[in-house]
């Protein structure tokens, strides 16, 4: 089968959508011809054997988009001004994909399937225009959405983007989402096109600590980003400030804006670490007594980090937004993990996920 995948970024960039794209492309390329288009430097990938079977291409030269698979983002003063003015109004700079994707794909055709991967949703908008310009681009189109767009209560985009969302959803054969709870965050008239296919990872290289956990004090960790009023740790951190017993809370994050005020108040009981490669992170998390997940205020989005948590084989405490289950945390501190969150990791095995995509494709061919 001849497969075209279009996404913003791929490995070695670290993000849920980069993982989604890379893992899926590598797995599908084991048995199919895969062309992968992303903002990347194709010459950089010869050192990774997993990309040997992938026909890797980059977008036509981008003028505004700075996020790149292989390069650190650099924003000029003008970039920052444009971001402030137009990020919400125009989804700047990602709106550039609206015309760059048709330009990049104009000479391609006769694929069995196109899989476009968002966010950003401008990837889908650009693929819609590419198919409108060239109906022979692909026989089947699957639009994969990590998060909702128009009905995303966290983003609340301007209403004039509804036309673009409805255009791509009407034209796509299927819209795939990672969790069932997200279905109602899409326009009802397209619910019949929605299929649930979770995030997928290759588990074969995953290593965890196999010894006995012997931390000197209760040690727990969180990995991921925080959002004010959405995935917000402040109530939990306030509670930690009232605990007199020793503990260590380790946080892996790229932005400590919501937690830095607690460094002095928690007097060494909190430790913030930089993001590290995913395989290394899973191993480090597997040395903790337990892991913390902060639930989103709304249930339409679920952090993919929970998959990594499940792979660590460590107990998981999922903290509610209003910390009403703080008594569970107190029990975890005492070593009672009876209310640990259970995660079935088999459904996230990339072999199973790729098979789900193939089953979907075959219903249309």
Automatic annotation (TrEMBL):
<protein>
    <recommendedName>
        <fullName>Glycosyltransferase subfamily 4-like N-terminal domain-containing protein</fullName>
    </recommendedName>
</protein>
């Amino acid at each position: 089968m001849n497969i075209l995948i279009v996404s913003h970024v791929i490995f070695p960039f670290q993000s849920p959508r980069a993982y989604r794209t890379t893992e899926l492309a590598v797995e599908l390329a084991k048995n199919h011809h895969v062309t992968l288009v992303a903002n990347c430097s194709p010459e950089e990938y010869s050192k990774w054997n997993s990309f040997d079977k992938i026909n890797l291409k980059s977008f036509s030269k981008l003028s505004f988009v700075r996020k790149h698979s292989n390069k650190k983002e650099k924003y000029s003063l003008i970039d920052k001004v444009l971001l402030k003015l137009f990020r919400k109004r125009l989804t700047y700079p990602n709106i550039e994909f609206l015309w760059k994707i048709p330009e990049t794909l104009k000479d391609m055709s006769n694929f069995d399937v196109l899989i476009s991967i968002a966010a950003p949703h401008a990837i889908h908008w650009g693929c819609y225009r590419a198919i409108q310009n060239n109906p022979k681009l692909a026989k089947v189109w699957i639009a994969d959405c990590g998060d909702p767009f128009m009905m995303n209560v966290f983003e609340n985009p301007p209403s004039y983007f509804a036309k673009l969302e409805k255009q791509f959803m009407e034209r796509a054969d299927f819209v795939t989402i990672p969790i069932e709870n997200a279905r109602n965050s899409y326009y009802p008239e397209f619910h019949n096109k929605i299929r649930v296919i979770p995030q997928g990872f290759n588990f074969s290289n995953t290593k965890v600590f196999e010894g006995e956990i012997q931390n000197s004090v209760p040690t727990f960790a969180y990995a991921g980003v925080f959002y004010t009023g959405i995935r917000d740790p402040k109530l939990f951190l306030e509670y930690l400030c009232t605990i007199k017993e020793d503990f260590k809370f380790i946080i892996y994050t790229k932005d400590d804006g919501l937690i830095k005020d607690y460094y002095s108040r928690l007097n060494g009981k909190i430790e913030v670490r930089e993001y590290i490669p995913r395989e290394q992170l899973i191993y480090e998390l597997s040395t903790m007594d337990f892991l913390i997940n902060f639930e989103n205020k709304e249930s339409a989005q679920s952090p993919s980090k929970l998959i990594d948590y499940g792979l660590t084989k460590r107990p998981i405490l999922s903290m509610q937004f209003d910390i009403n289950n703080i008594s569970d945390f107190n029990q975890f501190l005492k070593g009672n993990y009876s209310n640990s969150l259970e995660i079935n990791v088999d459904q996230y095995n990339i072999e199973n996920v790729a098979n789900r995509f193939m089953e979907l494709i075959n219903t249309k061919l």
